[in-house]
Amino acid sequence: MSPTDAKASLYSARGLTKIYVMGEVEVPALREVDLEVAESEHIVLLGPSGSGKSTLLHMLGGMDRPSAGTLAFRGRDLTHEDDRALTLFRREHVGFVFQFYNLVPSLTALENVEMAAEIASDPIDAREVLDLVGLADRADHFPAQLSGGEQQRVAIARAVVKAPDVLLCDEPTGALDASTGILVLEVLQHVNEKLGTALIVITHNEAIGDTADRVLRMGSGRIVHEARNETPRAPSEIRW
Questions:
Q1: Distance of alpha carbon 235 from its chain centroid, rounded?
Q2: Is 226 inside any structural domain?
Q3: Phi and psi based region of residue 208 (left: phi greater than 0; alpha: psi -120 to 50; beta: remaining)
Q4: I need a labelling partner for 154 at 20 to 30 A (CA). Which of 80, 129, 133, 207 fits?
């Protein structure tokens, strides 16, 4: 799979394979995946549960190691790095956004973002990031005082504040209604365009694929189809 244009390579995977061993049973989650991701590219991963989407995302995020194959980030081989090196990789280069927000309930929106900034080597100002996601006026509110969409935007701000090179998003709109989900997608697209952060989004929602540069459909642990969008659509233009 090739990047959408001549941008520099962010990720390069060759023969990426993951097999989970459960007693005497081997369960293949990824099967010889080849993948190129360009700097600042926006990719959507589609596919049914068990197709390998989350396993691939975990590999890209340094949360799991392959059973076979290679994975490089800007030419750096991640395949055999130890736990400490992968922890530093995640801290310095990767932001994660999940379906559930996992905010600290006793901290305000600003404090949740500042907590993430404390472990970053060169963070963005926390108030600036809250403004980026449209929550400057909600900085002093606690999670219980925020709507679901607002909490997800705080979670995005928390991931963005450390200025990562890539945001890995696992069903970021899965717990939201359509109108709120569109707002969250707009925030993610804004981060991608304004900061140049690469964006890889897992979803079951086919329409969300129209907002990306490239859609990769997965099945049985493989990338089975690739589609490119010459002119990605704004989230407000898609049918939920």
A1: 17
A2: yes
A3: alpha
A4: 207
Tens digit of pLDDT for each residue in 112-168?
A: 999 999 988 899 999 999 999 999 999 999 999 999 999 999 999 999 999 999 999
Number of domains in the chain: 1
Query: pLDDT by residue (tens digit) across 3-38?
Result: 444 689 999 999 999 999 988 899 999 999 999 999
97 in a structural domain: yes
Domain assignment present for residue 77? The answer is yes
Mean pLDDT of 68-80: 96
Report the CATH number that the domain containing residue 58 is assigned in CATH.
Answer: 3.40.50.300
pLDDT band at 208 (very low <50, low <70, confident <90, very high): very high
DSSP for the chain?
A: ---SSSPPEEEEEEEEEEEEEETTEEEEEEEEEEEEEETT-EEEEE--TTSSHHHHHHHHTTSS--SEEEEEETTEE-TT--HHHHHHHHHHHEEEEESS----TTS-HHHHHHHHHTT-SSPPPHHHHHHHTT-GGGTT--GGGS-HHHHHHHHHHHHHTT--SEEEEESTTTTS-HHHHHHHHHHHHHHHHHH--EEEEE-S-GGGGGGSSEEEEEETTEEEEEEE-SSPPPGGGS--
Q: Which domain holds residue 34?
A: 9-237
Does a structural domain hold residue 4? no
Nearest partner of 4 among 236, 216, 193, judged by Cα: 216
